[in-house]
Write a structure and sequence with these properties.
337 residues; 73% helix
């Protein structure tokens, strides 16, 4: 005798998949810092961004063709173009450039303004609201990021230009995420990521000549790290990010990335034999604690709320997950719709 899954169990399973996707993204983005350290010694910022995006676009394009997903709906294209230019293009170039001008700790502190901007822009432009637990969690995580940054900062290794570039990277990152969120209502995570990556690649084509000349002299290890950045932290991680973003709010997804500094510290310890100071470990634990707090739901005292509605088909489950309310306080508004 087979049992039909209830709407509640289906909803819980979907939440678990979204959480797993977010964790995959965070782990791969943390690993990117280790690879950038090698590739960045041989490639300039624009060339590294273009090489990474070319590898990512090729990987995503092959998967899209195999899955035969085709083009997303016309309504998705404004978000695809905006996120492609801001996040895949501008963000990657200016972040690579900024990290050459400042030490790693300063870069981490400035770039981690991004999740705060995402929450504010999401509340203003997407009507997501600012739940108390999200604000508390982000404050704790940002404090942890500052602690990690201070413990890793060098002396005299920062410049005004470098700080400005990292700040621009944070703004581009936040703008790209907020632009991508509405596009996910009209296409799958794979579609939105693939064409966003292609837009970013096109924007970085002016660095083609530099990439070719530097690739001729770069060591094989640096080139392999650049390819790794394109396949895993770009193609795979950006797709799992989009999958999870379609099923929660931009603010909550942004807060999840505060786990990255903690994982970077751990990976540097395991892979690069860089033993972290206790101050650094404490900051990393603060980052993780803040992420946990930001993902908590407020206790309403009533647990008998109606189950989420059964959706019409597989297409809705895959492409329209972002239209379902995910925050506790948004459930009532979701029922009114």
């Amino acid at each position: 005798m087979t049992t039909t899954p209830t709407p509640a169990s289906t909803h819980a399973g979907r939440n678990r998949r979204a959480t797993a996707a977010a964790c995959t993204t965070v782990a791969l983005w943390a690993s990117a810092f280790v690879s950038i350290r090698s590739a960045g010694d041989a490639y300039s910022p624009g060339a590294l961004a273009l090489g990474r995006l070319l590898a990512g676009s090729l990987t995503l394009g092959v998967i899209l063709l195999v899955r035969r997903e085709g083009l997303p709906a016309r309504a998705a294209w404004p978000g695809i173009v905006a996120s492609g230019l801001l996040w895949f293009g501008l963000y990657m170039v200016v972040l690579n450039w900024g990290e050459q001008q400042v030490d790693a700790g300063t870069a981490a502190m400035v770039v981690n303004i991004g999740p705060i901007l995402i929450a504010l822009l999401g509340a203003r432009l997407l009507g997501e609201g600012l739940p108390r637990m999200l604000l508390v969690g982000m404050a704790v995580s940002f404090a942890g990021a500052v602690v990690v940054g201070l413990s890793m900062s060098g002396h005299g290794g920062s410049s005004v230009l470098g700080v400005a570039l990292c700040l621009l990277a944070a703004v581009a990152y936040a703008g790209g995420v907020v632009a991508q969120k509405p596009a996910l209502r009209h296409g799958s995570a794979l579609q939105i990521t693939t064409f966003g990556c292609l837009v970013g690649t096109a924007a970085c084509l002016p660095f083609s000549g530099v990439l070719v000349s530097e690739a001729a002299d770069a060591p094989v290890s640096a080139t392999l790290n650049m390819v790794y950045l394109g396949i895993f932290p770009t193609a795979l991680a950006f797709t799992t990010w989009a999958y999870a973003l379609a099923r929660t709010t931009a603010g909550r997804m942004g807060a999840t990335t505060y786990a990255v500094p903690a994982l970077v510290v751990l990976m540097s310890w395991l892979l690069l034999d860089e033993v972290p100071a206790l101050f650094t470990v404490g900051g990393g634990l603060l980052c993780l604690a803040g992420v946990a707090v930001s993902r908590m739901r407020p206790q309403t005292g009533r647990r008998n709320s109606p189950a989420p509605p059964v959706e019409g088909g597989r297409h809705d489950q895959e492409h329209q997950g972002s239209e379902r309310p995910q925050e506790g306080e948004e459930e009532a508004s979701g029922r009114r719709r």
